[in-house]
Amino acid sequence: MNAKAYLSRVGQINARIGRKQAEIGMLTDLVTSTTAPMGRENIISSGNQDKFSSIMSKIADLETDIENLVLEKFEIIKTIEQIDDVKSFYAIYYRYVNEMNTGEIIDKMQISESRYYSKLSEGICEIEKILRKKSKLEKVTVDNA
């Protein structure tokens, strides 16, 4: 996987987390709408109980999925944090993690647009090197296993 595709995973992960959180919200609303109101007899039909259990199981699965996505996102951030040059680090971080646009980034970094693109390019090259090194280490580990 090339560096840009690797870094773009952060945005994809954020979108997936957002969709899963929205689904959890809808399921939570569904659970609260199917439970008996307070003050009434606490008799729940087995059909409602099965539905409740199924929904709660789905919520738990979604929460596990979100946790795994967050871990994947943090792995990418840890890779970005290995960039030595501070300006290159921020160019990458603001672009891919904070999902800021070019104008916002150059204002925040107080650099010219051409300098930003230069630092972004340098950061992407450094990510490429880090990924190649990581890939070689993983291959050595697998070969020695």
Explain what the structure shows.
With 145 residues, the protein is mainly alpha-helical. 82% of the residues lie in helices and 0% in strands. The model has no long low-confidence stretch (mean pLDDT 89).
Structural class by helix and strand composition: mainly alpha
Overall form = flat
SSE string, helices as H and strands as E: HHHHH
For the CA atoms, what is the radius of gyration? 22 Å
How much of the sequence lies in strands comes to under 5%
- Count of β-strands: 0
The biggest beta sheet reads: none
Keywords summarizing the entry:
0% strand, mainly alpha, 145 residues, 5 helices
Explain briefly what this protein structure is:
This protein has 145 residues and is mainly α.
Task: List the SSEs and their pairings.
Elements: H1 3-34, H2 46-80, H3 86-97, H4 102-109, H5 113-144
Helix pairs in contact: 1-2, 3-5
